[in-house]
User: Fold this.
Amino acid sequence: MDKSNSQQKKKLVMNYVYAILIGILVIACAVTIALVSTNNSPNRTDVGDDGIDVSTTTYVVPMQNATIAKDYIGTELQYNDTLKQWEIHKAIDFVAGDNLDVYAVADGTVSNVYTNYLEGTVIEISHDDGIVSIYKSLASDVSVAVGDVVSAGQVIGQASDSMSKELNTGVHLHFEMTLNGVKVDPNDYLSLGDK
Assistant:
């Protein structure tokens, strides 16, 4: 009799375990379906290499026929030949070819335009989803003002050597992007092909 009670208790425990496992499986399936549905929505986000959500908005390259003098590297020091020091470079430096025009990378609103000695003339454009594109080392005669609504591919200014912090780079665009105020890798947003 003890043996049959023991077997019944084992069966009861196993039934509880199976019920719990089936419940977990059902919940996991529901969560997966919810995530798939969310990821197929037009406003979905993906995760970039740095673990930050990347908007699915299409971004254009800010300069045509330019080469990359210095790429974004957020974790390793790079030598700044102008300042003669090692520093982190959370931007992409585009060296201008024949065309000095700088383009807005996406639709947005100009949120700031200013000039200072270290950065040169700077334009900041606010985009959807907390993204801000930042264009430094521009010539002083920019073609936009704070509050202007711009379209992707619209000329907003021209590259120059106004950024004294990177004077030895010559005429170039120092391009940054932020997400909710934190610098992110523009490579996660721009299609730059083989660099």
